[in-house]
Design goal:
This protein has helices at residues 3-25, 30-34, 38-49, 55-77, 88-96, 99-120, 124-135, 144-175, 194-213, 223-246, 250-256. The protein is mostly helical.
Length: 267
Amino acid sequence: MSALEINFWLFVAICAATWLTSIITKEYSWVDRIWSIIPIAYMWVFAYGANFDDLRLNVMAVLVTLWGARLTFNFARKGGYAPGGEDYRWAILRQKMSPALYQIFNIFFIVIFQNALLLAITLPANLALENWNNFHVSRNAFGDIDLLFSALFLGLLIFEFIADQQQWNFHQLKKAGQATGFLDKGLWASSRHPNFFAEQGQWWVLGFWGFTIGNNSQWVYLVGALVLTALFLGSARFTEQISLSKYPDYKDYQTRVSMLIPWFSKK
C-alpha cells in the first residue's frame, strides 16, 4: 500500500471517529482538537513512504511537526482540550440553524470538509515522494531551493508564534483588568489577523515547495492552500462581525489596518 493510500484510509478513520465523538459528547470541536496533530501524521506517513531516506521529506515533516507543536500548545493553553472547550462560533451557528440542518452541517462541513482539507494541505509532500520514487538522489536532490522554502516556513512559524503570544498577553491583561477592548498593538497594528496570515503562509510555502519539486506541472496540489485561505477569510469575517458587535471602535480599526497581509497602518 502506498503512502497516499495509507493516508486516505487514515482520513476515513478520522472522519468516522470525529463524527461519532461529536454525536456522543454533543461537542463539535473534535476536528479543531486534532487540527494540529493529524497533518503531522500525514507528513510522517509520506516520509515513511521514502523509508525516511529522503532529506527533503524528512525536513518537511519536521517543520510541520514544529508547526503542530506550537499550535497544540497555543490551543491547549486557551482551554481547547478541556471539557466544554468547544469553539464559541459553533454555538452561535447552532442558534441560527435547526437541529437537523446543524447535523448536516456537522457531517459535511465540520467533519468531512475540514478533515479533507487537513489531508489536502499536506499533499504537496506526495510530490516530493514521487520525485524520490522516480529519481532518488540523482535528480532534484535537496539543495538551495529547499533551504529557501525551509527558511520561509520557519520564519512564518516564528511570526505566528509572536502574534499568538502578543494576543495571549493582551487577554491575560484583560482578565486582570489592566486592558480593555481589542488588541491593536505589535504585529496587530499592521494586520488585523497576523496569526492567520502566517498560518496560511506556511501552507502556501509547503504547496509551492512540492509544486517546484514536481517541475511546476501539477497545480492541483495548491488547491489545499487555496481552500484553506478561503476558509480563513470566511472565518475572519465572521469573527470580525462578532468584534464589531462588541466594540464600536473596531470599525475604525478596520479602516486603518490591513485585514490579512501585514502593511503600514493608515493614520
